[in-house]
Amino acid sequence: xxxxxxxxxxxxNTTEDGLRTLFSQFGSVVSAKIIFDRDTGNSKGFGFVExxxxxxxxxxxxxxxxxxxxxxxxxxxxxxxxxxxxRKTRGNW
Length: 93
Fold this sequence. Notes:
It contains two helices and six strands. The protein has helices at residues 16-24, 54-64, and strands at 3-8, 29-36, 43-51, 68-69, 72-73, 75-78. The chain starts with a strand and ends in a 15-residue tail after the last strand.
């Protein structure tokens, strides 16, 4: 089963292809996704990478967390699943 990783502190010009290339050295990348602001279209500075196995994901965390990529020191850890229907909301003022 694929293991999803959270990738934080990404440079705003980092691409999904760049993430895929970086993480492919640790195993089979199932998916690479950068999160964009829906209003501005700009990167939010984080994304997710899915690797095929738990072992590949552990190797990627050990090999990439704290490493400089595209000029930023990125954070890599296991992604936490949201509860169904959970969504961050803004205050209604």
